[in-house]
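Students often ask why we bother predicting the structure of a whole assembly rather than each chain alone. The short answer is interfaces. A chain on its own may look different once its partners are present, and contacts between molecules only exist in the joint model. In this exercise we take four input lines together and write out one structure for the complete complex. Read the inputs first and try to guess which parts will touch.
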Amino acid sequence: MTKAEKTRQFIIEKTAPLFNRKGYAGTSLSDITEATGLTKGSIYGNFAGKDEVALAAFDHNFGLVGSIVKKRMAERPKAADKLKVYLDIYSEFMKLPALNGGCPVLNTSVEADDTHDALKQKASNAIDAWYKAIQSVIKEGREKKEIRQKFDEKEFAGAFIALIEGGVMLAKVTGKTGGLKAAMKQAEKMIDEIAK
Amino acid sequence: MTKAEKTRQFIIEKTAPLFNRKGYAGTSLSDITEATGLTKGSIYGNFAGKDEVALAAFDHNFGLVGSIVKKRMAERPKAADKLKVYLDIYSEFMKLPALNGGCPVLNTSVEADDTHDALKQKASNAIDAWYKAIQSVIKEGREKKEIRQKFDEKEFAGAFIALIEGGVMLAKVTGKTGGLKAAMKQAEKMIDEIAK
DNA sequence: TGTATAGTATACCGATTGGTATAATTTTGC
DNA sequence: GCAAAATTATACCAATCGGTATACTATACA
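Now the answer. The structure tokens for the assembled complex follow.
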């Protein structure tokens, strides 16, 4: 790992929470230099511009959540319990550093959908990956006869993700956990319904 | 209605879609002058600053959606059908001018929660109002014996709103309606479950 | 209709925006 | 330990940011 690669990683790690909290338009280059302690020259020596930093920061944020999910899923053998990992994580998302400014998928989607194609694409891909992760758990669960055969798994994933992201939004903006908990409870009900 | 009041209204109407699409940080004063055809002097003669325009724009956007909901609800006598008004509207939210850039509640919540207290408060209040509107329909439905007694109406509202907003986010960022439809179907199921 | 006032436009302000050219400094391979 | 290359800092750029002072113009009321 060369020096520049380390610096690049350092910049990403320091700015990722920033982008997640303040958004792409709300994060300035001086925010970036301030957070890293580096100068513009150094930033631009490692990235083509603000865009590239933001894109890398999103990947970092999404990757963090993904690795936590993966790790916790591995600890649970049953498909239904694997799906409930999402509920455990997002029920207390404020406690997770990676989700401090809210869910990066939600934040990026909402900001970028009408303003920033590259970021929008990243967010869209992230959702695709999320869909696939859920469907994969369902498929495995079906093979083990833990999950019912007779329901549309794509439909399940869509409503499931919507509940989680909607719940996160409610918690962040109201400052209360009522809405999030209600959404999580509903999502849990959905899981219990597809589990035999 | 004085001239200035007309101009003020004109500015709000022209910039409200802008703020909903590009967000607070993403909308500049030149965006505002461009959209209205007016000059900065005129904007600042009617508003104290960008903040005040944004706040008024949010009220306008939220009010538009609210009035559509109210109108359509009035056409339906049954409580369950009143609740389904939200599903009808958000299922095809792209067709509604007021929801062109997505749901203003969602957009504003996600952007402002960590960056703009006044806007955050407005979004939070909007959600409060939404909660109350749902609870009011439920209460009325219960009095008419159309809605079951034995469930937590706040919990219902929280999950219901989360589903809708999550679904809108999915539709906007993926460009496909699958996720939104799945969320709406789940929300409809929720309504059917509380209706006798 | 004249005049006070309300409303709008012009021209400017300092600060900050994202970005770059170049100089100074580290790393790196030999 | 030295030279070449890679990396970081400095100093600057034009453009734009939100905002203001002031001059002009339209409106409203006597």
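Check your guess against this: Chain A touches chain B through 49 residues (CB under 8 Å).
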